[in-house]
Amino acid sequence: MTSSTQNRITHALRLLADDDAYAAEVLLKEVIASDPDNAEGWHGLACVARSAGRNDLAISLAGRAVQISSEPHFHITLGSALLAEGHQEAARAALNVSVLQNPENPLAHLTLAEVLETLGRINDAETALRNVIRLRPLDAAYRLILSNFLQRHNKLESAITAAQDALSLSQPVDVDARQMLATLLNLVGRPKEAEPLFSEIRALCPDDPTALANHGMALFHCGQPEKALDLLEQARRLGSSTPETLNNLALCLMSLGRLNDAETIFEKILHPKSGIKINHGTVLAELGKFSHAEALYQSVIKDNPGKTESALASFNLATTFLAQARYGEAWPLFETRQILMPILPFSVPQWDGTARTDAVLLHGEQGLGDFLQFMRWVPIAAEKAPIILSPPSTLLRFLQKMISPLWPKNIRIIPMEELQHEVGNYSAHASLLSLPALLNNPIPAPFCLGHSKHRSETILKVGIAWAGNRDFQFDKRRSLPESNLAPLLSLPNIEFQSLIPGQTLPGMKPLPEGDMLSTAEEIMKLDLVISVDTAIAHLTGIIGTPLLLLNRFGGDWRWSEFCQSHWYRNVTVLRQTESNTPETAWDAPIKTAMAHLRNFSEG
C-alpha cells in the first residue's frame, strides 16, 4: 500500500472520528475502487458501517478485511459487530484470535471481556478486564470500567477498591471517578465516606442540579437534613425535579417534622417508583391517614410479587396495622422484615412454634428496646418447649437478677459469647420478634415488675432520657434539642438524673457507668422518668416507675393512641400536637410534662 493510499485511509478515519461518516465513506470507497484488495480500506468501511448501526454490513466488510489480511484490530471490529448482532460465540472466537495475535493490545482484552460477560462467563470476563489493567496500570478509565463491571455483579467491595484506584490515578478535576466511588460507598451504607466526594463534585460542577441533588442526598444520609434540604431546594430551582430529587426532598422534610410539606411533595411526583410509593405511605401513616397509606402499600405488593419492594411494603403495612392494634393482620406480615434484615445464620432450623421436648434458642434481632418489649412472650414460649434465651451482653445481668426469678424454671439465660458451648443443646431457634406470629398470641398482658418507689423526700427525683441514637436518619424528630429542656430543668425542688450514658446537662446528675442492670437500679430510685422513644422507655415500663413518654407527631407504632396501653400500664404518652420542626413541635409536650411534674410534686 502506497503512502498516499495510507494517508487517504488515515484521513477518512479522522473524518469518521469527527462524525463526518459520509465523507469518510466516500473516500474509503475511492480507495477500494482503485485497490480492491486493500484490507485497511475494507476495515475502514466496516468501521463506518458500525458507526451507522449497520452491524450486519460491518460483519461482511470486516470479514472481507480478515480474508485479505488477518490483522488483530480487524478481528476486534469483527468481534464487536458479531456481538452487536447477537452472535456471541462467533464474536468470542474472533476476539480470541485478536488476543492471540497481539496479547499486549488492551482493546482486544476489553472487547473480549464484554463478550464473555454476555455469555455469562463472569470470572473469565473479570480476568480479561484485569489483563487490561495489567497492560495499562496508570489508566484511570480502565479501572472505572472494571469498577462498573464489579458493581453489576454485586462484587461491591472489589468495585470500591477499583474505584479508589481510579480516583488515585485521575486528575483533580475528574468527576467520573469521584461519582463512581461516592455512589458505591453510598450503596454499601458508608455515607460519611461518600459525602466529601459528592461535595467535591458539587464544587467542580456548581451549577449542575444533579451534583447539588446528589450532595443533598448524601448529607441527608449523614444526618444533616437542614443542609440537605437547602441543596435539594437549589437543585429543584435549577431544574432537577426528578422523582429521585423530590423523594429525597420529601424525606428531608419528613425528618424535620414537616410531614404535611413532605406529603405535598410526594403528591407532585408523577409515575412514582415503588420505593417512592413506600416512602409516601410512611408519611401518610405518620399523619394518621392509614387507609391511604395501606392503599399505596397494597399497590406495591401487587406490582412486585417476590421482590424486595414487596417485602418492604408488607413490613410497612404490618407496622400500620400494629399502630391500629390490628394485631391478627399485622404479625404474619411483620415476618417479612426477615427478608429485609436477615437474621444471622444458625446451625439449626427456625422454630415453627409447635410443642417440642428439646430446647429452642430465642435471641434478639434489632435494638435493646425491641428485646425488652418482646421478651414478654418468652414465658409463653416456655409452655411449648424448654428455652435458652441469649440476650445482648448489656441486658444479661438485668435479666438474671430481676426477670429470671419470675419466669418458669425451664428458661435458661445464656450469654451470647457462651452459645458455642450450647451447640447440640437446642434444635431450633427463633427471634423474639417472631414469637407473636409463631405462638399465635397477638399480645400478652402488660409485663411489669410493679416497682413503686415510696417517696419520702421533699425533693422530686426525675430521670431524663432526651435523645436516642443520633445516627438514626429521623432522630431529629425523636430526640429533643437540648434548648427545649431548659424550661423543664428550671423547675424548683426537682433533682434531675441523666439516663443517657456519657451525656448530661447543667444541673443534672450523670448516669453511673454500667450495664442495663445499673441503669435499672438508678430508675428504681426515681419518682418519675421522662423519656423519648428509646430503650429507656421500655426498661422503665418493665420496672414500673411512672413514665412520661415524649412522643413525636405520628411516632412509632407501639406508642400509638390505639395500642399504647397494651404494652405498659405505667406510661403516659405526651404527644406533639402538630407536625412541625423540632424547635416548636416539642413545646406542647414539654409544657404538659411540666404540669405533670408540678402535680406530682404537690401529690
Descriptive report:
- By secondary structure, this protein is an alpha/beta fold.
- Among the domains are: 3-137, Tetratricopeptide repeat domain (Serine Threonine Protein Phosphatase 5, Tetratricopeptide repeat, Alpha Horseshoe); 359-438, 3-Layer(aba) Sandwich (Hypothetical Protein Ychn, Chain: A); 460-602, Rossmann fold.
- Helices cover 56% and strands 7% of the residues.
- The protein is built from 31 helices and 10 strands.
- The protein has a 6-stranded parallel beta sheet with strand order 7-6-5-8-9-10, with helices on both faces. Strands 3-2-1-4 form a 4-stranded parallel beta sheet.
- Helix 29 (535-543) links the parallel strand 8 and strand 9 (547-551).
- Helix 6 runs antiparallel to helix 7 (106-118), helix 8 runs antiparallel to helix 9 and helix 19 (308-323) runs antiparallel to helix 20 (327-334).
- The chain starts with a helix and ends with a helix.
Summarize the structure.
The protein is of the alpha/beta class. It has 31 helices and 10 strands.
Tell me roughly what share of residues is in helical segments.
55-70%
- In the CATH classification, which architecture of the domain at 460-602 applies? 3-Layer(aba) Sandwich
> Major β-sheet, in short?
6 strands, parallel
Number of strands: 10
Any idea of the CATH class of the domain at 460-602?
Answer: Alpha Beta
The whole-angstrom Rg is 33 Å
Q: Give the rounded overall mean pLDDT.
A: 93
Strand order of the largest sheet: 7-6-5-8-9-10
- Proportion of residues in β-strands: 5-15%
Structural class, by secondary structure, is: alpha/beta
Instruction: Tell me the span between the first and last alpha carbons.
Output: 108 Å
CATH topology of the domain at 460-602: Rossmann fold
- The CATH superfamily name of the domain at 460-602 is Glycogen Phosphorylase B
- Which spans of ≥5 residues are poorly predicted at pLDDT below 50? none
| Molecular shape | elongated
Task: Tell me the number of helical segments per DSSP (H or I, 4 or more residues long).
Answer: 31
